[in-house]
Hints:
Aspartate Aminotransferase, domain 1; Aspartate Aminotransferase, domain 2; 2 domains; four-stranded antiparallel β-sheet; 13 helices; about 15% strand
Amino acid sequence: xxRMRLSPNVSTLQPSATIAVxxxxxxxxxxxxxxxxxxxxEPDFRTPDFAAQAGIAAIVQGFTHYTPVxxxxxxxxxxxxxMSRLTGAVxxxxxxxxxxxxxxxxxxxxxxxxGPGDExxxxxxxxxxxPDLISLARATPVVVHTTMEQGFKVTPExxxxxxxxxxxxxxxxxxxxPTGAVYAPEEVLAIVEWARRNDAVVISDEIYGRICFVQERxxxxxxxxxxxxxxxxxxxxxxxxxxxxxxxxxxxxxRPLASAMAxxxxxxxxxISTPSQYAALxxxxxxxxxxxxxxxxVNVFRRRRAKALEMIAAxxxxxxxxxxxxxxxxxxxxxRFYDEQTRDSIALCRKLLEETGVAAVPGAAFGxxxxxxxxxxxxxxxxxxxxxxxxxxLSTTPAGRST
Length: 403
């Protein structure tokens, strides 16, 4: 039998590494294994009750039909008002396109802005889906490596070194997944100004913006500049409002680009789930209640962060970690534990899962094979136990190469 011939559009795509690990964890648990899953990329909190109830009420009231592709007008206005309150910027609701999570918003932006022959700069470590989103647009991701010593942050000078005449844009993520790096306002502005000088587009992924440990929230591009032909903002309800399964993300851009992305979305998914939009509307409209829920969640993440850093220092002295300034991950450098049997981050994560029941995500998925990512979306006791288990497995591994 002949094998199906896949289109070049998808022939090189790989499944999301984080989703693959989560799937394996579920399978092992179903087999009765004692698994501590530190691979998850979503908060382990309930959606705020008032938002969930608004979604339920929408179903009961029969709000289950199509909406405008770009989202309910009142939701777009509520999102614009929320962004204006946070940043002081004047936000145009007509520039907002509500999508099936921030991931679709990123896809929409990449597909609408980039194409064959274009290059898109991608600071590494990066979120696992960025390279594939760029490639789906038939553009080429160009990785710009950062280091722990640099705070895992890219500079205009580094972008200059990677730029070519084909450079069309870059993706900026602050707070960063997997590193937790947070850019200061002046650093964000410097990158936007670099993009304007070089006729490039900054897609600013701000999905973790409200989950910040060093200040009230991470700086948005809207804190330092306005949206124009060189700036697109991507955000959503998933992380800060613990609404990952509701699939509510959005982009904010100029009206012409928003119209183009909405037209494209009309042929792909049309509008997102209508009840989800009403749940998000309640969250974005009721800023005091949602802010209370966000602060409570961030305070828990802050305690877990402190516990993780304490346990790593006490039990994994061979690992290096930059204290995350935002998001809910710890990105550990572990290459000193590599040996002839455990040669890379994938092998190390496999060893940890098989021998200790601890699930982590290999750094190779984020563009740096020297690291692994631990999620803090787990109870403190689980985080502490996971690190103790990791230490028991890695203590028997001879020190390997360190580069």
